[in-house]
């Protein structure tokens, strides 16, 4: 039996595959209809104009649902493995709350497009990525506290590595966005979907 056929193990796999597919399908649709330039667009740009906006929105809403289901299963798993440890139970509840907030942010991103309601879209991105990173931190701490009885040290190190990678990606995204919207590269960049080769 494959690992994803055991219990609810399919949920994290379904979340990753479905989320990746939502970005790929909306990107392909936007490129095929010449709504964006093919070279490294913002993910949000691929979900700005119909019909890819509709596809992007519904697929990300399903991703948010899969994320909530995955985080709830993780919450129940940690609770079942540590019913007597109050510190772990408290952290676990905090983790579930943060995870659900992150999924809500994904719904905001899906339904409030960058070119239409930019600031609400940014709030959704902060919830998804910022609060999501804090959720990852909580899960890393839980893995540390649950070793060696429940987790091996390898699980802790894998989660820590993923957390550091996520945080470095968030910093890179933030710095790039600040530089892009600093005014050095033109105005109305939020609405811009195509680049002229003569521009900076």
TrEMBL record:
Its main location: membrane. It is a multi-pass membrane protein. One of its GO terms (cellular component) is endomembrane system. It is found in: Endomembrane system. The chain crosses the membrane at residues 12-35, 55-73, 94-112, 118-145, 157-181. InterPro entries: CWH43_N (IPR019402), DRAM/TMEM150_Autophagy_Mod (IPR050911). The keyword Membrane applies. Keywords: Membrane, Transmembrane, Transmembrane helix. It holds the Pfam family Frag1. Residues 8-178 form the CWH43-like N-terminal domain. It comes from the Eukaryota. GO terms for biological process: photoreceptor cell maintenance; regulation of autophagy. Belongs to the DRAM/TMEM150 family. This is DNA damage-regulated autophagy modulator protein 2.
